[in-house]
Amino acid sequence: MTIDEQFNSIPKEDLPKHMAIIPNGNRTWAKLNGLTAMEGHNTGVEVLIKFSRMIRQWGIHTATVWGSSTENLVRRDPREVANLFKLLHYVLETTAEESDRDGVRLIHIGNKEKLPKDLVKKIVFWEEKTKNNKNHVANIAFAYGGHDELFRGMRKAFADIQTGKITFDDLEKVTGTYQEKYPYHLFKDYLDTKDQPYPYPDLIIRTAGEHRLSGFMPWQSVYSEYYSTTLLMPEMTEEEFKKAIIAYANRDRSFGGDKTKL
């Protein structure tokens, strides 16, 4: 069977509800092609825009894209960081209206305090405008770090504990289950993905042959399936995304119990 035939044979219920991507290789691709790092990021962003459109067409509800980590913003060339901010402006200017028409709720996950004020203003505008959309969720992880998210979540939770709104033990309360298997604890409501229907990624794709999560969504990814490809981000194709989903659909997910196909 061809990749398309395999992909098209996957029952809708076996598709991931939430896909996330950790894009790597933009700078390597640029160097190999005699381009600047900024040109590499620009090309990678165009691939991510196509990715977001494709998965909506495939009926996948939630997508998360990691655009920059908290470490990226302090360890990289300031010119490269400025270009990353410019690229997020570009993505919002060129795709946000289309996403809104498609019923996508746009959500920033990460630390807004680490972003320029004009960029935060634009993010907040689209978060507010799309907050009632139900068809899809698009998480833009920018200035995102797993430790940072947990620390921010703990601060908010401890503030509620101090005012008597909740107790510390309440944070462990099971408030539901994900995929009818993995428990939701109340603490999840203090994270950046709080009130989403599918806050935990079913499938995480990482490009450029990397085999680590680098602190990506540590609470939410505890039972995520992982797919690593040697392709650099600008090289990613529709076929490679389909390969990742085929691999996911053929795995048995136990969530710490008996193996089952979900």
Task: Give an account of the 3D structure.
The structure is a single chain. With 262 residues, this protein is α/β, with parallel strands linked by helices. It has a domain at 17-145 and 198-248: Undecaprenyl pyrophosphate synthetase (3-Layer(aba) Sandwich). Helix content is 40%, strand content 15%. The protein has helices spanning 3-8, 26-32, 37-57, 72-75, 78-101, 117-129, 146-162, 238-249; strands at residues 18-22, 62-66, 104-109, 136-141, 174-178, 182-185, 203-206, 225-228. The strands form two sheets. A six-stranded parallel sheet has the order 3-4-2-1-7-8. A two-stranded antiparallel ribbon has the order 5-6. Helix 2 (26-32) crosses helix 3 and helix 3 (37-57) runs parallel beside helix 5 (78-101). The two termini are 23 Å apart.
